[in-house]
What does this fold into?
Amino acid sequence: MPPEAAALAEGEAAHFRALESLYAHAPINRFFESALEIADAGIARIRFTLDERHFHAGGAAHGTSYFKMLDDAAFYACNSLVSDRFLLTTAFNLLLTRPLRAGPVVAEGRWVSGRRRVLVGEARLIDADGEEAARGTGTFMRSRIALAGLPGYAVA
It folds into this structure.
């Protein structure tokens, strides 16, 4: 690998690790047992464990949990392509196809289009049986918030 390409890959990996750290430091994640993994640009995976604290009165995960998981996965897939600014969700559409019970859930996010001001991402939730339980599509806009100034975002 040429030195320029190696340096670029190293910088990209450092950005991915810093985003994973940012996710782990977000106060909202104190309510969710979860971990973010970014293995490649435009791809994010979040592993969650749902329990009864996340349930509605009918005994399954409340829609807020679906939104959280889908939005985060699509968001981080898109922000993996932006190394200077924090993105903001401007719209998100959900399709809930089956109830989620207690146990592990994987949110798989991917970038779809856009790189300048607005990015589009999508995500899906996979339950413990390997079945898709929901999917969503969101738009994310570059903010004026510098990633480097956020607590938890630390590039090694």
In short: The chain is about 25% helix and 40% strand.
